[in-house]
Amino acid sequence: MQFKPKKILTQLVGIALTLLVALFVYRQFVYYPALLARPSANQATVDFVIETGESLKSVAARLAENGVVDEAWALTKYLAQNQLDTKVEAGHFTFHGGETIPEVAQILQAGEVAQISLTILEGWNSTEIDAKLVELGLIQPGEFSNFVRSGGVEIEPSSVLSGRTVASLEGYLFPATYKIDPDNFSVKDLVARMLTAMENNLHELGFNPANSTHSLHEILTMASIVELEENSEANRAKVADILWRRIESGMGLYADSTLFYILGHKTNLVSADFELDSPYNTRINRGLPPTPICSPSRSAIAAALHPESNEYWYYLHDADGEIHFARTLEEHNENKARYLQ
């Protein structure tokens, strides 16, 4: 009998396609309906928080990780089929265990949404966040900043903090809008959520400690300086490159934002400030300051992670806040004479 490889290959492809179709039919018309009717195996109460701007895919994945649903894809499919996928909002939700997917979807639609939107602005430090929480009547003065600057010792280690004892959480807290319940507010819970948000953003921006030339602490410290040194997202990556190169070459950063941080104000500096004996004085000390100086935005973190190569070594801002770069000290001094005097 003559061997016909083409015919056999065609038959194998046909069998494979048949199996794929059968698997698809089984998944959609047998397994999926069974998933909808089956209570989750989890029997514990799960308090769940959806953050502002979080994607439905992320929400479903976290619900699956917490055992609230068995299959994340089944939840997203059910929500989409029932035109509920655009109605999942940020807030606090409680699952008591053993819910079916339709019951989970119902809780997501009618769950208890937090009563207050707390907006942490980009560039705020822990003292400024503390003041906002005091203004809202949520804490006593110093409660938040003291917790953050003591390293948040009560916080369970996360991947953001793994492998390192952090003396202060300054700069590790992601600035965003958080939904909170004022009746059940705690500094510890807010800090934990802000750390998780930072972790998620670092992951999305491609930070990988295994192949990064800088540590996470260095990245966040640089990002915090870039945040306050330059407002324009278009120029932040250039500024980051200049500052990284200054460190590598042994130059001082000369970043006035670090002095403002330790002095506790944002008004004009005087000549005496430039001689301040502090590790945060980057005019007289080389390298980065000991900690970040604020909560950096996503764009500032991206700039620190992915600096834009350029030939400049200096920059300054004019009275309108516009940045002017210079390749040499001579050019920089000319910019000073042109834009600052």
Short description:
With 341 residues, this protein is mainly α. It is 46% helix and 8% strand.
What is the string of helix and strand elements?
Answer: HEHHEHEHHEHHHHHEEH
Tell how many strands the DSSP assignment holds.
Answer: 6
Strand arrangement, major sheet: 1-2
**Helix share of residues?**
40-55%
- Secondary structure tally, helices: 12
Strand content: 5-15%
Nearest-integer average pLDDT: 86
Largest beta-sheet characterization: 2 strands, antiparallel
List unreliable stretches of 5+ residues.
none
What does this structure look like?
The structure is a single chain. The protein is mostly helical and 341 residues long. The protein folds into 3 domains: 38-113, Dna Ligase, domain 1 (2-Layer Sandwich), CATH 3.30.1490.480; 116-204, no CATH class; 216-310, no CATH class. The chain has 12 helices and 6 strands. β5 (314-317) and β6 (323-326) form a beta hairpin. α8 (216-229) packs across α9 (233-249).
